[in-house]
Write a structure and sequence with these properties.
Blueprint: E1 2-4, E2 21-24, H1 31-41, E3 45-48, E4 62-68, H2 77-87, E5 88-99, H3 106-122, H4 132-137, E6 143-150, E7 162-169
Parallel strand pairs: 1-2, 1-4, 2-3, 4-5
Antiparallel strand pairs: 5-7, 6-7
Amino acid sequence: MVELGPGTGHNLDLLPQDVEWVGVEPNEHMHPLLLEKARRLGREVELHLLEAQRLPFEDSSVDGVVSTLVLCSVPDVAAVLEEVRRVLRPGGRFVFWDHVRDPERPWMRGLQRALCPLHRFCADGCRTDRDVAGQVRDADFASVDAQEFRVPKAAAPPWIRPHAAGIATR
């Protein structure tokens, strides 16, 4: 399994021990924290200092790709999704969860657009004004099952409560 932008390894302890895990993390400052967590969990990991637009894997060679709060901050979502499709084997799954542009409230979309430059600066490039679920649906996967929802008020400020999560199959 490949994880895009694993950060400090929050998802590592959610996976079965027998899952072969490979991380693609462009922020080198996250690597020591992730490797320490993997060591504490007794996990063997492979970690690459790369961006998700250039995955170091053969075509159709990966069973699954996971992306948690990553597509909101990559420079080119379409390029990342194309690369994900390239490396997934037929029937392979792309599991994602991300901040998204509010799907229902135009006034909130306006607030998200207005706050986006400041939020990007403060949150490592995160854009809260993207239609991530729509971009995954448009990426030519064989199937996409995506849900849009809001996280609870206590979990995030209003402009980053809208989220989308889903599974796209090649």
